[in-house]
Amino acid sequence: MEVTRKNFKDCLSAVYSAIDEADFLAIDGEFSGISDGPNVSALTNGMDTPEERYAKLKKHSMDFLLFQFGLCTFKYDTEASKYIIKCFNFYIFPKPFNRASPDIKFICQSSSIDFLVSQGFDFNKVFRHGIPYLNQEEEARVREQAEERRNQQANGAATPSYISPSSKGPAHVPEEHKDFISRVIEKVDGLFTNSEKTVELEPCTGFQRKLIYQTLNWKYPKGLHVETIETEKKERYIQISKVDDAERKRREQQKLEKEQEELNDAVGFSRVIHAISKSGKLVVGHNMLLDVMHTIHQFYCPLPQDLKDFKEVSMCVFPRLLDTKLMSSTQPFKDLIPITSLAELEKRLKVAPFKSPKVETAEGFPRYDTAQEQLHEAGYDAYITGLCFISMANYLGSFLTPPKAHISPRSKLMEPFFNKLFLMRIIDIPYLNMTGPDLRPKRDHVLYVTFPKEWKTSDLYQLFSAFGNIQVSWIDDTSAFVSLSQTDQVQIAMNTSRYAESYRIQTYAEYMKGRRQDKDVNSQP
Amino acid sequence: MEVTRKNFKDCLSAVYSAIDEADFLAIDGEFSGISDGPNVSALTNGMDTPEERYAKLKKHSMDFLLFQFGLCTFKYDTEASKYIIKCFNFYIFPKPFNRASPDIKFICQSSSIDFLVSQGFDFNKVFRHGIPYLNQEEEARVREQAEERRNQQANGAATPSYISPSSKGPAHVPEEHKDFISRVIEKVDGLFTNSEKTVELEPCTGFQRKLIYQTLNWKYPKGLHVETIETEKKERYIQISKVDDAERKRREQQKLEKEQEELNDAVGFSRVIHAISKSGKLVVGHNMLLDVMHTIHQFYCPLPQDLKDFKEVSMCVFPRLLDTKLMSSTQPFKDLIPITSLAELEKRLKVAPFKSPKVETAEGFPRYDTAQEQLHEAGYDAYITGLCFISMANYLGSFLTPPKAHISPRSKLMEPFFNKLFLMRIIDIPYLNMTGPDLRPKRDHVLYVTFPKEWKTSDLYQLFSAFGNIQVSWIDDTSAFVSLSQTDQVQIAMNTSRYAESYRIQTYAEYMKGRRQDKDVNSQP
Ligand SMILES: Nc1nc2c(ncn2[C@@H]2O[C@H](COP(=O)(O)OP(=O)(O)O)[C@@H](O)[C@H]2O)c(=O)[nH]1
Ligand SMILES: Nc1nc2c(ncn2[C@@H]2O[C@H](COP(=O)(O)OP(=O)(O)O)[C@@H](O)[C@H]2O)c(=O)[nH]1
Known about the structure:
Two copies of one chain form a homodimer. Chain A is an alpha/beta fold. Chain A is built from 18 helices and 17 strands. In chain A, α1 (about 10-20) runs parallel beside α10 (about 270-280), α6 runs antiparallel to α9 and α7 (about 180-195) crosses α8. The first copy, chain A, is globular. The two termini of chain A are about 55 Å apart. Chains A and B meet through β5, α4, α5 and α16 of A and β5, α4, α5 and α16 of B. Bound molecules: guanosine-5'-diphosphate (2 copies).
C-alpha cells in the first residue's frame, strides 16, 4: 500500500494493527545517496575495525535523506500454514511544517539519484507528497513551544495569535510606517461603528504585520480576534473580527485543537517507527546497518559518537534485529548461496534445497509479484527480504527430527542470527554484534604498506611473491593492508623491507598504535 | 522550448543561431536551495561589505545545484517594430557520464524543494532527463585522458580496451580465480578452432574482468577484440571476437569516434554557456548575482576566493550584464515602482507610464502567456525579465527630444545600468560594481551593539530612543548594527554606554578594525 502525506492519517490505524498482529516485520529504506566521501571503497576498507566503520558511516552517510521506507508485516496463519502479509511503501519528506520548524538540508549523490530514476522511482511523489517527521528532540521542542504559548494565553499576556515582545506600552512605529498603521486603526475603528463583523487587510510585510498585532493588542486588548491568513499564493494578510467573549473563547479553543492536530501531523512518519519500536517485534532487513542508522538518525536522535552508545540506542529502538545478508552468508547457508545480494538471494531461495514460502497478501493490500521485479522500491525490497528470511528459517527446520516445514521467527533456531548486522567488505569481521563486544580477530598476519602512487595491485603481488597467496585491501592510492597467509612470514617481510626505499612496511599492531597516538594528540584541547 | 538530454543535441544549432541573431539575451536559473547556513537573514546582513557578502554566498550557496536554466533570446525586427523571441528552458543534471567521471553531490533545501513542487516543478524530468555538463577543468581532464589512451594505443602498448598495469609478464591470478580463468582460456581457444566469430562470457566481477583482460592481452596480443559490454540492468560482461587486422582497425576507429561524441555529450549544457559567453551579447537577469555565481561555478570553474577575481572571471564569461532589479530600483524607476520582485515588476510595467513591449514568439517556439503566470519556471522568468527590460528601456526613450518609442539595448541610455548587480538587503550599497571598485559608504553613523539574547528590536529602539529614528540590522541574536540618523549622535551614544553592563557599543570603524585583526591572526600559518 502506497502511503503519502495525502492518505497517511487514514492509513495509520491500519499500520498500527498490522504491526500489532504480525509475527515479524521486514523493513527497507531508500536514500538520496550512500557516501559523501571521496569514494565508497576508500570508506569501506577491508581491515576497518567496527568502531572505524561506524565512525565513517556516521560521518559520510547521515547527511543523505531516507526518503522511502518499506514496511512489510508477516502474520502466520497456522491453519492455512501460510503467512498473511501487509506491505506499506511510505514516501517521506521533511516539508517544513511551519515557519519556525527546521528547514532540513540534505545531500543528493547524482549516481544514486540517477540509479533510482532509471528504476522508475518517482521523485515528484516524494517531494510533493512525502510524509513529514520530527525526531524526538524536535517533537519535544515543538510541544513545549505550544505549551508555552498556551500558558501565556491563559495568563492573558497575549492574544492567541500574538506574543508580546516587551508587553508594556504601545508599539514603537517607525516613521515610514505611521501612515500605514493609522489607516489600519481607522479601518478597525470602523468595525465598531458599522455592521460588518470582519475586515480583511491587504497583504503586507512581516514587519508591518508585527506592528499591526502590537498596535491592536495594545489599543483593543479584548473584543477583537486577529489572525494571519495565508493565501494559496503564500501571501499573508491579516483578518480582524469583532467578537464577543463566548465567540472569542470558541475560536481560541478551535485554534488550539487545530494546533494539536498539526503537531501530530508534524511528528508524522516518526509515529510509525515509534509503533515498530514499541511492538518489540523481530525486524528483518537485508544488509541493514545503514537502514538502522538512518532510521535512528532521522526519526529518533542524532547518532551517538561511540559505537557502544549506538548499539544501546539501536537496541532500545529495535530490540530484535535480523539481517538476511548476514544470515545467508553464515553456515549452513554460506555454502549453498554464492551471491548474497538481495535479488540473487531471492532467486536462489526459490529452488531446492530451499522452498518458496507460502504467503498471501491480506485483503485490500496490493499484491507484489516476484516474477515481475520491482527491486529498489522500498516496500518491495522489504517484502522479498521477508520471503528470504522465511525460506532460510524453514530450511533450518529440515534438520530437526522429525523435520518441520515451518519454523517460527521466535524459534530457538533463530537465535544465532539475532542482533548481528552484516559488515560490508570487512575481511575478518562478518558482523556488528549489537548486544555486546565485537569480534577482535588477531591481525598479526597483516602488514600496513605505504608506497608510491604509481604502484598497482600487481606491484604488491610481486613484492610479496615469495610468500604465496596474499590479500590486498586498498586504503588510498599510496597505502594498503596486505594479509599474508602465514603469521610467521611477517617477521621475514619486515626484515627484508628494512632497507627498502620505495616502500615502507609496518605490522598492523604498530600501525594501530600509531593511529591511537595520533588520535590522542588530536583530541587534546 | 523545453530542452532535456533527449533533444539537446538536436536543439543545439537552434540555440546557437538564436544567440547569434539576438539583440540581447535574458537568463534565469532555478536552484535546489538558496542558503546552506543557519538562516538566510543572518547571511545577508544589511551592513555587509560587498566582500563579506560574496564570501558568504560562495560559502553557503554554491553546494546547491542549478538544475534549470532559462534562456530567452530577443531579436528586434525594425520593420515590424517588435521583438522576435525564442525561449529555451533547459533541464540540467550531472548524470555521471562514465565510471571515471565525478559523482557530484549537491545539497537540497527542503523549503526550496517544497516551494518548487508546489509550483508544479517536475523533478523527475530534471533527474531523469537533465542535460549533463562539465566545467572547464573537468573537460580538459577528460579530453586529456582520452588523448593519453589514444597515444598508448597508437604505440601499441595496449588494446583499446585495456591499459596495462605493469605490462610485463602474465597477470598474477590469485588461487581462487585460477579455475575461472582457465575456463575462459578454454573458451577463447575454442574460438580459434571453431567457426564462431564471437564468444560472450558470463557477467563477472570487475576484478575477474581485469584478470581476463590481463590474461588475454598477454596470451593473444593480436587477433582478438575484447570489449566490456553493459546490459540494460547494468551488468557487465565481456565479449571476445576473433578479428583480422583490418577489422580490428575498423572497430578501433569506430570506438574512437564514439568516444569523441560521448565527450561532447558530457560537456553538454556547458556548450550553451560557452556560446553565450563567446557572443559577448548583453545578458539580462533579475536579481542575478546568484545566477551569475552558480553559472560560473557549475559550468566554468570553482569560484575564486577574492571578490576582485570573481569580477574578472564574470566579465570574461559575461562581458555585459544588466540586472532588472537594480535598474528598477534606480531613478527614474525607483519612484514609480514600489515593489521590485519579478512578478510585481512585470505587472507594474504593463501600465502607464510604461508600455508592454510588442513581442512575437518565433515560429516553432511555444508561446508563454503572461496572463497565465508560470512563474518560477526558469524559461518563463527569463522571458518576463526580458520584457521588463524592454519596457524600462523604452520608457527612457520618452525623455528624448523627440521621444523615441524603441530604445536599443546598445543605446548610450543603457550604460548607467551595465554591469551592476543588485545587492539584496544591503542598506547603503545598492549594487556590486562588476567593472571596478565598489561604493564605500561612510558608515560613521553606524554602531555595532552586543547585548543579552533576551533583547528584542523594541529594546534597541528603547535604548536609542533619545536619538529619534534608527535602523536596526540584526547580525545574530546577541548583536546588531544600529544606524543613527545623525553622525554626531555617535559620540553621545558611545559616552553614555561607557558604564553600561548589559550591552556594549563599538563604532563601525572599531568593529571593522577588530575583524581585520581577527582575520590576520587566523590567516597566519
Ligand atoms: N596506486 C594505486 N591505487 C589503487 C589501485 N587500485 C585501487 N587503488 C586505490 O585504492 C582505493 C580503493 O580501491 P578498491 O578497493 O580497488 O575499490 P574500487 O574503487 O571499488 O575499485 C581506490 O580508490 C584507489 O585510491 C592501484 O592499482 N594503484
Ligand atoms: N535577541 C534577538 N535576536 C533577534 C531578534 N530578531 C532577530 N534576531 C536575530 O537576528 C537574526 C536576523 O533577523 P531578521 O533580520 O529579523 O530576519 P528574519 O530572520 O528574516 O526575520 C535572526 O535569525 C535572529 O538570530 C530579536 O527580537 N531578538
